[in-house]
Amino acid sequence: MAASGKTGIKKGTGEISVMEKFLIFIKHNLKPLWKIIELGNGLLFSLFYKPGLIRQLPEVFCEFAKPPFTYRKLKLPDATSLCSLIAEQPPSDLEYFHPHGFDLKSITKQFKNRSFLMMGAFDKEKMVGYFFLRFFANRDCFVGRLIDKDYRGKGIGQVMNNIMYETAWRIDFRCLSTISRDNIAVMRAHAKNPTMIVRKELKDNYLLVEFVREAKVPGLTVALGQPDRID
Questions:
Q1: Within 13 Å of residue 39, how many CA atoms lie on the same side as its CB?
Q2: SS3 call for 165
Q3: Which of 25-34, 123-132, 172-181 has the highest mean predicted lDDT (pLDDT)?
Q4: Would you call 51 exposed, middle or buried from its count of C-beta atoms within 10 A (0-12, 13-18, 19+)?
Q5: 145 — phi, psi (to 5°)?
Q6: Mind spelling out the 3-state secondary structure of 109-162?
Q7: Is residue 55 a contact partner of residue 161, using CB atoms and an 8 Å limit?
Q8: What is the C-alpha to C-alpha distance for residues 164 and 88, in angstroms, rounded to an integer?
Q9: Beta bridge partner(s), residue 211
Q10: pLDDT bucket at 34, cuts 50 / 70 / 90
Q11: pLDDT at 139 (0 to 100)
């Protein structure tokens, strides 16, 4: 796999499993089957891994959240605020961000997904950021985030990254994301992240990447970035 040139992102040494290839194919090509898989996956995750997540999450928030903003798990009453946050962003900022539907009905429905952890960043009562982890029973999870256009460059993204990655790592899940080479701003941000490995090139100019602890890849020069498109 070729490096991404000006962005500084380089290929890692890991391999993508047959199961991961299968899930990626279904996700992008067989939407009805994907919905069935998500239902079963939610049940399995809830039974085997949710208790560990519940134990670890408060510790991660306590350790990595930094003032003046607050960070917490979202609840159903936050659905309207999340809907407003997304609606207030420029359409171009959502071009590569598709974790679920953005209308209130779709967001409310997402709270029922037992394998989807929704979190928010707040400036007092105002939601200024949204980030999430989508867990799979094979111990993989995908991450994504969105920051309000007026609150970028204030360190919120780094805190989000720390919370997402540590949450996954502490319950022994691989932390993955898909990013588009065409998303120049995100690709540049990835060039500064020392824990990212490119696992596979996907169709439509996307990359499958994994965020790992640096200790797992001694001597490997990689680039870290922010999570991007999950749909």
A1: 5
A2: helix
A3: 123-132
A4: exposed
A5: -155, 155
A6: HHCCCCCEEEEEEEECCEEEEEEEEEEECCCEEEEEEEECCCCCCCCHHHHHHH
A7: no
A8: 24
A9: 175, 196
A10: confident
A11: 94
Residue closest to 209 by CA, chosen among 61, 73, 24, 5: 24
Q: For residue 52, give both structure tokens.
A: 């560990």
Q: What is the DSSP string of 8-63?
A: ---B-S----HHHHHHHHHHHH-HHHHHHHHHHHHHHHHHHTHHHHHHHHHHHHHH
pTM of the complete model beyond 0.85 = no
Question: Which residue in the block uniquely carries the two structure tokens 């171009």?
Answer: 92
In tens, the pLDDT along 113-128 reads: 999 999 999 999 999 9
Tokens of 226: 């922010």
The SS3 of residue 94 is helix
Q: How far apart are CA 177 and CA 192, in angstroms?
A: 16
Distance (Å, whole) CA 155 – CA 51: 30
Answer for the pair 135, 60: CB distance below 8 angstroms, yes or no. Answer: no
